[in-house]
Amino acid sequence: MKKAAVYFDFGESFVFAMPLNGKAKAAPCQPRKILHSSTRTGRDACVDALGLEQLQNGQGDHEEGKSRKRKHGRKEPSRKLGKKYETSRRSEDVAEKSACRSQISRKLDTETMQYFAEISSLLGEGGAVTDPEERAILCANALEETVGKELQLACDRSCSRVLESLFLSADAIHVASFLHRSSSDFPYIAMDSSGSHVAEAALKSSAVAVRNCDTGGVLYKTLKQALFVICQNMAKSAVDVMCSCYGSHVLRCLLAVCSGTVLESPSDNKRGLASRLVRLTSKAPAPQNVESKDTAFPDLLDFLVNRLLEECKESLVWLRMDPFAGPVLQTILKVRRGNDKAVTCLISILLEGDNGIAFEEGKYLEFVSNEEVMELMFNSNGSHLMEVILEVAPDALYMKMFESFFCHNILDLSIHPSANFVVQSLIMSARHQEQACQSLAHAIYPEAISSACLVPRMLFLENYVNGEDSKCWNTALGKEMSVLGCTILELIFSYPKECNKQFRSSLASMEANDTLKMVKDARGSHVIERFLSSSAPHKQKQRIVSRLKGNFAELSTNTFGSFTVEKCFSVAGSSLKEAIMSEIVAVQSDLLKTKHGPYLLKRFDVTGFVKSPVQWRRRLTSKHGTWKEFSEIFGTKLGSGI
Fold this sequence. Notes:
There is one protein chain. 59% of the residues lie in helices and 1% in strands. It is mainly alpha-helical. The protein has a two-stranded antiparallel sheet. The chain starts with 48 loop residues before the first helix and ends in an 8-residue tail after the last helix. Residues 1-99, 276-293, 354-359, 469-475 and 638-642 have low confidence and may be disordered.
């Protein structure tokens, strides 16, 4: 089945006009065209010779403080290209590529270099020009000097920094004009170590401007014209741009501009457990990694996405697992979030490679290969894409994927170093949380006789999967607990109490000695704390606290156990609070020698307890009543403030 490409007719509005400044300057070199052959795809399409050479040799120094890093000698995953690479290239292609190299490598004249150095000194930190109006005029004049030299200036290491600063102060119409003039060379700029930052700066500046401009104005039309040609040229070299460590960033920025969204920075998009738990327990909606706005250029977004998928359709098998192309595919899914039909079709293409016929017939993932999806999740890069697919998938498709790929493989996925993140994402974004818990419980304890072994097996997940005797789990409690198993348990205990009943019962039924070992473990203590902070019944929480009675003195001096003692004190009843205080008083002098001890002593008001237990009890009762009233008014969980 061949995928039918969807193209949009933008009419005469995309006919190029002369530069906005109305001046025609003699260009030092002729503008280049994107080398592309409709008979070849992927790496078969001719690309910029210098950019390709840099990627192969790992060259191209990169500015200090930049977020991207070039990987030397990166091994590519198995790539199934639709056609064999042509060993003998046409002579005209080689000649034109040589011309491309000479144009990019041609040095700027001394006068131009000096001019932009002066601009940098005037506009930079501590520069002489501080008046906003004067800066805008100076930026406009400087950008006017780039006419005919856009490619060389953007790819020059020093001048590229000046261009980035110009885009911050220049009027949007001049930035749009720069994009307009450089649109034919944009893929080459995007794949350059210096030019990529210039391209991103120009796109981001345009994105800010387009939010406040009239859709019928000159600025909007100029940007749309420039972006249309940029989208065309970027799509022609789609595979090469996506696989470039620089070009992939620019392409993601272009998708964001067309969709009117703001992508999170990589530092904000954390994959760790802490960020997952914050999102899961927060009452605010989970971040979607994009700040939703009205689509800035809806027709351009549809055009770009369809052209990218059309150009990459024969290479998607390996692009999904490419470290640079993968994030581009993730961004495509994120900017289409909310459009269930488009997202379902995209996921179908990414996982099946079909043309959407299965989606039209309502047969989701009809031709998908379970082995390929498992391979995708086992891959360190592909697992990221699968996480995004789970996050954006509509309910019907989500349930189909859950039943097809996870129900019978969730145990193997949970212990894999890459696939376990997909399981965490599945649990965190589960539409049917109770079903997810039941599937995991059945995989961990298929005997289904009792739920008592669920938590112990999760605590030592790798040991269980490696075949240890299921009847001798108490012997494993002397070993270090599983990071993956404890992480999954924390996520499960963040569910509503109706969904994790089996796991709650398992933890509550553990022996006192085993519970104590959990609290002393760096990972196990987090599970206990998450349980005590959850929506579990108060009776079950009291049972856990009671089993630790007699050990609070020892735990309070333990680095990990001290946090659990504080959490136990928060949820304990009055009698248990006094029992905890009695044990803490006995080791008061030892606690003063620890880093966390003074905080605990102040938190529990140990001095007041020693001085007058009756007065301490009255203050505690008064505080409890005040907090109860506060909870009733503002809906705060009782116990979290005591």
